[in-house]
TrEMBL record:
GO CC aspect terms: cytosol
Luciferase-like domain mapped to chain residues: 19-299
Gene3D superfamilies: Luciferase-like domain (3.20.20.30)
Protein name in UniProt: Luciferase-like monooxygenase
InterPro entries linked to this entry: Bact_Lucif_Oxidored, CmoO-like, Luciferase-like_dom, Luciferase-like_sf
PANTHER family found in the cross-reference section: LUCIFERASE-LIKE MONOOXYGENASE
GO MF, one example: oxidoreductase activity, acting on paired donors, with incorporation or reduction of molecular oxygen
Organism per entry: Confluentibacter flavum
Pfam families: Bac_luciferase
Family recorded in the similarity comment: To bacterial alkanal monooxygenase alpha and beta chains.
SUPFAM superfamilies in UniProt: Bacterial luciferase-like
Length: 335
């Protein structure tokens, strides 16, 4: 049974809808962040991806700055920065700068996946595999750069030292759970697309958690796909854009986010494919009452501290409406 207040936040990939420009998309993200701030969302995270027509969040730290500049209170950060793509020093400098510009509002979530295909990962960094294997050491390097203890080192991120930018470990497998537990950092699981190991990863993290300066007790996040509308039928119609995107991803036919259609028999059949079912296991679609029941069951099962809601649909106004309705759901569940 749910026994605690569950925070709710947003993960945004700056999804590019067909017929919309990247400028439109970035402005839509800012409009969503402003709306989210009004209805009690804790944080607004952007995820690093590359080489996709439909995803605009490739220069993640720059977009974080735009969102933070246009909002006042909501925390803004990365969900996440794919650390093997980058030098830890440069990431510390970027997020230290953000932390100075927007005090006590910036989050640095770190993951080890490339956020792209193999060829693009190689183009970003030729030694990506070796860098991925060094992920734990690179996380420690970033912690060092943010520490005042680094003042006397030869290599410093001077704009990061002593700046309040909390670190979060992101993951889609049990490997990341072990690392987050060992380091005593908050742990966010990407269950909005990587579903099989969610419960095992949460169990490992909670069992092996070691208190740290950052965190005394375990703190968990889980990603969920949320589409809420005034009726189940309208929500199902909006969800067709998400299912088309996932089917395209699985079949190698990437494209912009497509407009919604009626749920055809063909799409309904493809929706039942085991790969689609597994990827979108934690996808809650419907009116407020329908989604509220699904979300409550998920929270009761996982006991996560915070939900990261992902709403990938075509229309930006529908997306804001969905997030407003989800905020109402969470406020009702938290009473």
């Amino acid at each position: 049974m749910q026994t605690k207040h569950t925070k709710y936040s947003i993960l945004d990939l700056a999804i590019v809808s067909k017929g919309r420009s990247l400028q439109d998309t970035f402005n839509d993200s800012l409009a969503l962040a402003k709306a989210a701030e009004e209805v009690g969302y804790t944080r607004y995270w952007l995820a690093e991806h590359h080489n996709s027509d439909a995803i605009g969040s490739s220069a993640t730290s720059i977009l974080i700055g735009k969102i933070a500049e246009g909002t006042k209170r909501i925390r803004v950060g990365s969900g996440g920065i794919m650390l093997p793509n980058h030098s830890p020093l440069i990431i510390a400098e970027q997020f230290g700068t953000l932390g100075i510009l927007y005090p006590h509002r910036i989050d640095l979530g770190l993951g080890r996946a490339p956020g792209t295909d193999r060829e693009t990962a190689q183009a970003i960094r030729s030694d990506f595999y070796e860098a991925a294997m060094s992920f734990p050491d690179n996380v420690q390097q970033i912690q060092n750069y943010f520490s005042l203890d680094n003042l006397n080192e030869k290599v410093r991120a001077t704009v990061a030292e002593g700046v309040d930018v909390p670190l979060y470990i992101l993951g889609s497998s049990t490997d990341s759970a072990h690392l987050a537990a060992k380091k005593g950092l908050p742990y966010a699981f990407a269950s909005h697309f990587a579903t099989p190991q969610l419960q095992a990863a949460l169990d490992i993290y909670r069992r092996d958690f070691q208190p740290s300066e950052a965190l005394e007790t375990p703190y968990t996040f889980a990603g969920v796909n949320i589409i809420v509308a005034d009726s189940d039928e309208e929500a199902e119609r909006m969800s067709t854009s998400l299912y088309k995107m996932i089917i395209g991803l699985l079949t190698g036919k990437r494209d912009f986010m497509q407009p919604p259609t009626e749920m055809t028999n063909e799409l309904r059949t493809m929706k039942q494919h085991p790969s689609v079912q597994q990827m979108l296991k934690y996808t809650f679609v419907g009116n407020k009452d329908t989604v509220k029941q699904q979300v409550k069951a998920f929270i009761d099962e996982t006991q996560v501290d915070e939900l990261i809601a992902v709403t990938n649909i075509y229309d930006s106004k529908d997306r804001i409406t969905s997030y407003r309705l989800f905020a109402e759901i969470m406020q009702e569940l938290n009473k």
